[in-house]
Amino acid sequence: MRDLTLRQLGLILPLSLTNLILWISGQCLIGLVGCGSNDDLANPFDPDNPRTLGSPGGLKVTPGDQQVVVEWNNPGHESPAGYRIYRKFTGDPSPKFVKVGEVDGQTRQYLDKDGILNDQIDTTGKPYFYIYRVSYVDADGVETPNPADFDKSNGESIIDTDAKGLLRFWPSQKTTPSDPPPKPEVIVDTSRNLIVTLIWKDYPVPEDFKEFRVFSTVPGGSKFEQVGIPYLLSSPFFFSDAVFNEDGEVKRYRVIAYDKYGVPSVTEIEAAAGHISPLMPRNFVSRYRSRLNGKYDVALMWEANTEKDLKGYQIYSTKQDEKPVSQGGELAPRRFLQRMETSIILENEGWLLNEKKQLIPKLYYIAAIDKTPRPDTGLQDESILADAPPPPGFEDLVAQ
Predict the structure, then answer these.
(1) In angstroms, rounded to a whole number, what is the distance separating the alpha carbons of residues 347 and 291?
(2) Band of pLDDT at residue 231, cut at 50, 70 and 90
(3) In which residue ranges of the chain is CATH 2.60.40.10 found?
(4) What CATH code would you report for 285-387?
């Protein structure tokens, strides 16, 4: 693009495109007419379009027992100087918004306890509401939205004559504080392996009850996550948590009862997965094969256990001159196998003599072992022993 000269603009010096842009910008800053005003950038929620009657986003109200918690979002950049909180009660003869509080620019929450009443209803039984909205105040003390503008139109919306008749709203949220429902009395059951069950079966249900919700976190955690679905009156009054990896693992729970207005009653407990032994291995079988040296091999097979905290399997066999297992006799530990193994071959096994001096094979047993030592003994939990049947023809010679 060819250079322009200031003569074309009524001036004297040559002017490039870049200088032209800088010159026009300077005129805007000097005149402050047409390119902006001293209101520019005053609204931290809309820096490109100043004071557009915006208000803090993410407005949320949480009812309680004669109180309401009002929350809103962080604007995401430099904070305003402060916030003002307004409230309107629909049960008043002439409901209108009044300021009930003010906080600094670093605060995103306000607890309102000023004259709050629970369970306010009209003559037809419908609830009255406390309605809230929030404005911000900038460093110059200018408030946005301006309550005076909205009060002229009953405080809900205005028609902005400076923006071609655009309808402006000041967002609000409503709620009804209420007497909280009874707290759930929770029983903890840890009798199943890696499962914690919370039970509140005898809960006295109030007339305005809505639902239960269950939340959990790790010990020391501050953020509770909801687990499961909301529990209604038609739901069973218990929750089973199977998300554990080992015995003794601890979680904190909140079982919360809500009424129809959203007012909660919280029961907080801590529970640990019980030290429960693994299940006995299933379908434990043996296959024998004689050897030319007078000994034998035995193949042992079983189905894999599915416990998440399973460490492995311990193989045992009977010993010479030992009482039967059913009478408290001791077994000889033979091999420990990892959790993914489901078979083993023991070679060159020697025969035993029974009380009648007859040759008999050893009997073989297996136990599943978990990986978490018990706090009282320091030993790992072991399942009930599963026994493999003796080879055919030896059933009557082998004492169980």
Answers:
(1) 9
(2) very high
(3) 60-175, 187-272, 285-387
(4) 2.60.40.10
* Whole-number Å distance between alpha carbons of 56 and 65: 26
What Cα–Cα distance (Å) separates residue 4 from each residue in 8, 27, 367? Answer: 7, 17, 94
Collect all residues with Cβ–Cβ distance below 8 Å to 254 and sequence separation of at least 6: 214, 215, 216, 224, 266, 267, 268
Amino acid at 1: M
Q: In the numeric block, which tokens belong to residue 29?
A: 């800053």
Q: How far apart are the first and last CA of the chain?
A: 105
Rounded CA separation 284/367 (Å)? 10
Contact (Cβ atoms closer than 8 angstroms) between residue 168 and residue 152: no
For the segment 143-147, the average pLDDT, to the nearest whole number, is: 85
* CATH code, residues 187-272: 2.60.40.10
- Comparing 154-163, 225-234, 278-287, the range with the smallest average pLDDT is 154-163
Q: Where are the alpha helices (H) located in 93-190, listed in sequence order? A: 147-151
CATH class of 60-175: mainly beta
Q: Determine the Cα angle at 250 with ends 247 and 255, to 5°.
A: 125
Residue (of 190, 386, 193, 196) closest to 308 by Cα position: 193
* 3-class SS of residue 362: coil
Predicted confidence band at 300 (pLDDT cuts at 50, 70, 90)? very high
Nearest to 253 by CA among 166, 186, 192, 204: 186
Q: In the chain, what's the furthest Cα-to-Cα distance? A: 130
Helices and strands counted in the chain (H then E): 2, 29
Inter-residue contact 313 to 334 (CB < 8 Å): no
> C-alpha angle with apex 281: 278 to 287, nearest 5 degrees?
160
pTM value > 0.85: no
| Predicted pLDDT at 30 | 35
Tell me whether residue 338 is exposed, middle or buried, using C-beta atoms within 10 angstroms of its C-beta: 0 to 12, 13 to 18, 19 or more: exposed
Distance from C-alpha of 362 to C-alpha of 350, rounded to nearest angstrom: 8
pLDDT tens, 158-170?
555 554 555 667 8
CB 216 within 8 A of CB 250: no
297: its two tokens? 């091999």
Which tokens hold the place of 344?
């083993």
